[in-house]
UniProtKB/TrEMBL annotation, chain A:
Species name: Drosophila willistoni (Fruit fly)
GO biological process: proteolysis involved in protein catabolic process
Protein name: Proteasome subunit beta
GO CC, alphabetical: cytoplasm; nucleus; proteasome core complex
Localization, UniProt: Cytoplasm; Nucleus
Cited PROSITE patterns: PROTEASOME_BETA_1 (PS00854), PROTEASOME_BETA_2 (PS51476)
Signal peptide location: none
UniProtKB/TrEMBL annotation, chain B:
Its biological purpose: Non-catalytic component of the proteasome, a multicatalytic proteinase complex which is characterized by its ability to cleave peptides with Arg, Phe, Tyr, Leu, and Glu adjacent to the leaving group at neutral or slightly basic pH. The proteasome has an ATP-dependent proteolytic activity.
Pfam families named in the record: Proteasome (PF00227)
Name the UniProt record assigns to this protein: Proteasome subunit beta
Quaternary structure note: The 26S proteasome consists of a 20S proteasome core and two 19S regulatory subunits. The 20S proteasome core is composed of 28 subunits that are arranged in four stacked rings, resulting in a barrel-shaped structure. The two end rings are each formed by seven alpha subunits, and the two central rings are each formed by seven beta subunits. The catalytic chamber with the active sites is on the inside of the barrel.
UniProt organism field: Drosophila willistoni (Fruit fly)
Chain coiled-coil ranges: none
Gene Ontology molecular function, alphabetical: hydrolase activity
One Gene Ontology CC term in the entry: nucleus
Gene of this entry: Dwil\GK14279
From TrEMBL, chain C:
Protein name per Swiss-Prot or TrEMBL: Proteasome subunit alpha type
Record keywords: Cytoplasm, Nucleus, Proteasome
Primary localization: cytoplasm
UniProt superkingdom: Eukaryota
Organism: Drosophila willistoni (Fruit fly)
Entry-linked SMART domains: Proteasome_A_N (SM00948)
GO biological process: ubiquitin-dependent protein catabolic process
Domain Proteasome alpha-type subunits: 6-28
Matches recorded under CDD domains: proteasome_alpha_type_1 (cd03749)
PROSITE patterns, per database record: PROTEASOME_ALPHA_1, PROTEASOME_ALPHA_2
Lineage of the species this protein comes from: Eukaryota, Metazoa, Ecdysozoa, Arthropoda, Hexapoda
Family: Belongs to the peptidase T1A family.
The protein's role, per its UniProt record: The proteasome is a multicatalytic proteinase complex which is characterized by its ability to cleave peptides with Arg, Phe, Tyr, Leu, and Glu adjacent to the leaving group at neutral or slightly basic pH. The proteasome has an ATP-dependent proteolytic activity.
Listed GO CC annotations: cytoplasm; nucleus; proteasome core complex, alpha-subunit complex
Name of the gene: Dwil\GK23128
Length: 233, 267, 285
């Protein structure tokens, strides 16, 4: 068969050739911490690609129900598409089952929704925080193809590897030779303070994290939101 | 020959495997396939071209207290050739939306035709309901994301602006992957590097821009873009959308000043 | 039951220019329990009477939420309503997914009308045997629409459909001028008082005395992000109480006076006089 390449005369002049990649990293970090009767989740507000900062005010926390918030970073177009799909499926659940999806049900659905695209994944780092049916704080973290893991604290996104060890130390008290009953009980104030502090440090080293951080504090009664400025360079 | 069922031209049955054929049944690992319109070869093995050919350069949008402004020059290039020099790239979509398009101009025209058709649909319902800028931006996200997911993207980067029913201004950007965000300043192409910092630098922390400030900034930025972006020219149009009016103004010319050229020595 | 030789198929006209099958479908609406829809400046309200099918069964769901900004109340074949509500829900979801905004009520109903019309023009279909009252709120304010099996849809200020709904309509007509400036509490009470008229006389006596036996569902949607919500039993009882008090102050008919008006609507047999499409109460221009 004659191939196009064999006819160089037919090359169109002036054509810009692109190798199209469907993915793009738009940066951003998430930290989520679960307490006994609350969960906090924080994400920065910088949306960038490469050295461009598209906006400094992009909220990456999606309130999916009255007691669960999803933090999603990575390829922003995938994030938009995934959260759009989640909202649709949650409303369908609400109509068929006549109740709002619980955080645990949502966690499972998010997992299968992501795995549905196993061979063309959503390039996103998701962390779902909320309170479960009993009012207990929960955090679920995901990989891009839908692996779901329940945790008590988790960092994700571009500064995830930077922040996770800090949480291990400050929230998990790893390798501090404390016995189980010596571990201090985590308060909302401390969880919020640690979450903010991790972002202040992440903004120092990760160029994709900065501008400001939005934190959502989820209890069984309400979701409160706070914002803290970060460095903008 | 008579027993050769395949030569008869008619399959023994439809909707099923033919005896003697090779098949990939479902359940096996399927690698991602390009859509058929892209891989089907023409005579002499030609393939459909999917990259941009005629391109528009930067678009710059600024949101101010009671509306938005979107500016783009009137050049559509053919590679490095300044091919079409009087083409408007900022469009009025309806009474509350303006749209600026950069990237492949054929793709812009194609999506513009789709949008115009939607505006006609809005009109024939005759219910005084028109599309809002946020709705158009969301729709564009879905369309462009769908195309990128089929690995057949529209090579465009658009700026959508306007006001909603309450008069709240909206300014957003949607790119070829369906990435969408909104902000008080939005830029595509070289304006991202050249104009965005200029605008951000002048943003008062406690309030929005005024119309006058926005207009001055647009003029300044289009001048900088003309001097520094080789795919830019001196003529540009500006779309302005507020609650009271929505129109594309221009073309204007940037304040060219080449007196400094005489002082440049050394090459 | 057959009226004449021209009613065996929806596609067959009678020489009088009528489609008898479609008209029979309209009768199905009158078999369902009554439901009322009405609105003021800012809110649209649905009130539905939901009698259990038998002593042994739970009462039918009469009000179906479609999306955050609208819901429907049904009278007729419930199974047909399920098909329609499924379609409406998916339309709204698709719209919301594409545009991140709500489906304008008027457009949704126009498209629903178009979908329902096809069933009245094909030999292999039958018209939907259900009437809908749609209550919704969009950028143009609150809306009440009536949709009937003939695929006609009517923009209403207030409307009632279902068995014995004529007396509810009479009530609505009488109070129509006051609705626009009512508070939301008042408009709900008007809805309850209207639907009370559709009760048979003996029911009216027993159930006026014992409020909790009046098995109704109330739904409301309106401005300030008031999503379409079906009221809880406690809230419903609160409004029943409220309606009962306003009722005694008002110029209400005593239960015994109802006989004359509701009696004519009692007969479910289709008579030529009431087979025409019900004319809306105070339709919008």
């Amino acid at each position: 068969m004659n191939k196009f390449e064999q006819f160089p005369d037919y090359q169109v002049p002036g054509v810009q050739h692109h190798d199209f990649s469907p993915y793009e990293s738009n940066g951003g970090s998430i930290v989520a911490i679960a307490g006994e009767d609350f969960a906090v989740i924080a994400a920065d507000t910088r949306l960038s690609s490469g050295y461009n900062i598209h906006t400094r005010t992009q909220n990456k926390l999606f309130k999916l129900s009255e007691n669960s918030v999803l933090g999603s970073t990575g390829c922003w177009s995938d994030t938009l598409s995934l959260t759009g799909l989640l909202k649709v499926r949650m409303q369908m659940y609400e109509h068929t089952h006549l109740k709002v999806m619980s955080t645990d049900a949502l966690a499972q659905m998010l997992s299968i929704t992501m795995y549905n695209r196993r061979f063309f994944p959503y390039y996103v780092s998701n962390i779902l925080a909320g309170v479960d049916k009993d009012g207990k704080g929960v955090v679920y973290s995901y990989d891009p193809i839908g692996h779901c893991e329940r945790a008590t604290y988790r960092a994700g996104g571009t500064a995830g590897p930077l922040l996770q060890p800090v949480l291990d130390n400050q929230i998990g008290y790893k390798n501090q030779n404390l016995s189980q009953d010596e571990l201090p009980k985590l308060s909302i104030d401390r969880a919020v303070a640690v979450a903010f502090d991790t972002f202040i440090s992440a903004a120092e080293r990760d160029i994709y994290t900065g501008d400001s951080v939005i934190i959502n504090i989820i209890t069984k009664d309400e979701i409160k939101s706070q914002e803290l400025p970060l460095r903008k360079d | 020959m008579l027993n050769n069922y395949q030569s008869s031209g008619y399959p023994l049955w439809s909707n099923g495997p033919t005896p003697g054929g090779f098949y990939n049944f479902t359940g096996g690992q399927q690698t991602h396939k390009l859509p058929s319109e892209l891989v089907t070869e023409g005579p002499y093995g030609t393939k459909r071209n999917t990259s941009s050919i005629t391109t528009g350069s930067s678009v710059l949008g600024i949101r101010f207290d009671e509306g938005v402004m979107i500016a783009a020059d009137t050049l559509v290039s053919y590679g490095s050739l300044a091919r079409y020099q009087d083409i408007h790239r900022v469009f009025k979509i309806n009474n509350n939306i303006i749209l600026g398009g950069s990237g492949d101009f054929a793709d812009i025209q194609s999506i513009k035709r789709n949008i115009d058709q939607k505006m006609i649909e809005d009109q024939y319902y005759d219910d005084q309901i028109t599309m809002k800028p946020k709705e158009l931006s969301s729709w564009l996200t879905r369309v462009l994301y769908g195309r990128r997911s089929r690995m057949n993207p529209l090579y465009i980067d658009v700026v959508v602006g306007g006001v909603d029913k309450q008069g709240v201004p909206f300014l957003g950007n949607v790119d070829l992957r369906g990435r969408a965000y909104e902000d008080y300043v939005v830029a595509t192409g070289f304006a991202r590097h050249l104009a965005l910092p200029l605008v951000r630098e002048r943003k008062p922390a406690d309030r929005d821009f005024t119309a006058q400030e926005a207009s001055d900034l647009i003029r300044k930025c289009m001048e900088v873009l003309y001097y520094r972006d080789t795919r830019n020219m001196s003529k540009y149009t500006v779309g302005v959308c507020t609650t009271s009016n929505c129109l594309v103004e221009g073309p204007y010319n940037v304040n060219e000043n080449w007196t400094f050229a005489a002082n440049i020595k050394g090459y | 039951m057959f009226r004449n030789q021209y009613d065996s198929d929806v596609t067959v006209w009678s020489p009088q220019g009528r489609l008898h099958q479609v008209e029979y479908a309209m009768e199905a609406v009158k078999l369902g329990t009554a439901t009322v829809g009405l609105k003021n400046k800012s809110h649209a309200v649905l009130v539905a009477l939901c009698k259990p099918l038998s002593e042994l069964s739970a009462s039918q769901r009469k009000i179906i939420p479609i999306d955050d900004h609208l819901g429907i109340s049904i009278a007729g074949i419930t199974a047909d309503a399920r098909v329609l509500s499924k379609w409406l829900r998916s339309e709204c979801l698709n719209y919301k997914h594409s545009y991140e905004s709500i489906y304008p009520i008027s457009r949704l109903i126009t498209n629903l009308g178009n979908k329902m019309q096809t069933t009245t023009q094909r030999y292999d279909r039958r018209p939907f045997g259900v009437g809908l009252l749609v209550a919704g709120y969009d950028e143009n304010g609150p809306h009440i629409y009536q949709v009937v099996p003939s695929a006609n849809y009517i923009n209403c200020k207030a409307m009632s459909i279902g068995s014995r709904s004529q007396s509810a309509r009479t009530y609505l007509e009488r109070h129509l001028s006051s609705f626009n400036d009512c508070t939301t509490d008042e408009i709900i009470c008007h809805g309850i008082n209207a639907i009370r008229g559709s009760l048979s006389n003996d029911e009216l006596i027993t159930k006026t005395e014992n409020l909790s036996q009046l098995n109704i569902t109330i739904a409301i949607v309106g401005e300030n992000y008031n999503k379409f919500t079906i009221l809880t039993d406690e809230e419903t009882n609160k409004y029943l109480e409220m309606a009962n008090n306003s009722n005694s102050l008002d110029d209400q008919r005593k239960p015994t006076e109802v006989v004359g008006t509701s009696g004519s609507d009692d007969d479910p047999k289709p008579g030529p006089s009431d087979s025409d499409p019900q004319v809306a109460v105070g339709t919008m221009e």
